[in-house]
Amino acid sequence: MEEIPDESVHLVVTSPPYFNAPFDYKDMFKNYDEYLNLLDKVAKELFRVLKNGRVVVINIDDMLVNGEKFPIVADATKIFQSAGFRYRDRIIWKKPDGYLRISRRSGVLLQHPYPMYFYPDNLLESILIFQKGKFDYSSVPKEVKEASKIDIKEFLDNKWYMTLWEMVNVLPNSPLEKDIAAFPEELPYRIIKLFSYVGETVLDPFVGSGTTMKVARQLGRNSIGIEIKKSLIPIIKKKVGFDEQSLFNNQNDTFEVIIRENVEYGYIG
User: Fold this and answer.
1) Of 9, 6, 12, 29, which is closest to residue 205 (Cα–Cα)?
2) Alpha-carbon distances, residue 107 vs 78, 95, 100, 229 (angstroms)
3) In the chain, where are the structural domains located?
4) Architecture of domain 9-225
5) In this structure, are residues 157 and 123 in contact, taking their beta carbons and an 8 Å threshold?
6) pTM of the predicted model, to two decimals?
7) How far is CA 134 from CA 51, 82, 86, 106, in A?
8) Could you write out the DSSP letters of every residue in 54-97?
9) Which of 166-170, 184-188, 240-244 has the least mean pLDDT?
10) How far apart (Å, rounded) are the C-alpha atoms in residues 156 and 160?
């Protein structure tokens, strides 16, 4: 994140690639240590670019790979704590009951209805919240606070106050999500409203198709996205509303792409 100055970001919302997930990231990492090393580098850079008092929110979960379960949530928590963050909260994202049917893994018990044959299917993901230092509530101007005020009815009706959030996942084969493990817009929508103010900057270091950036723009925030696939730039532009045919364009908004030389990483702001 070398292009991003120290303490210039107000909020981080992201979902790192899941360790060698069979359907999305199969064999991306040589081993689990390589994956944890990536998280460690990211955590240290996020601590550098984040303003004091602000939070990092990560959608991540344990992963079953070739029959072995990897404790990613526990290890990621330790990594971010070692980087200097305080572990603030964990929210569980519950997907709809019909999202999964009995799989080969959980179905083993149907073939062998005896103890020790039980393996559950997972309908949950973790949303981890880490904070850098303590937030100075008096640092935000009154007019900015009022412009960023949270709708209490929305907060109560959708049970944002709980550590269990029920949200529908991105539908399969969505036009802008093909071959991308994207999270639903509802996730960054809630996080951006709850942890940032209008006009501030939101960072997604694994921006994918640009969901975080789209929601940030809709909510009056600036955003920065980092992505390794240059091929996703047109998709991000379209999703965020900067393609030529978009009706969402605002003359005051700008879209800038910086591509690092001799590397595959791209920076989008």
Assistant:
1) 12
2) 34, 20, 12, 37
3) 9-225
4) 3-Layer(aba) Sandwich (3.40)
5) no
6) 0.88
7) 10, 17, 9, 44
8) EEEEEEE--EEETTEEE-HHHHHHHHHHHTT-EEEEEEEEEPPG
9) 240-244
10) 7
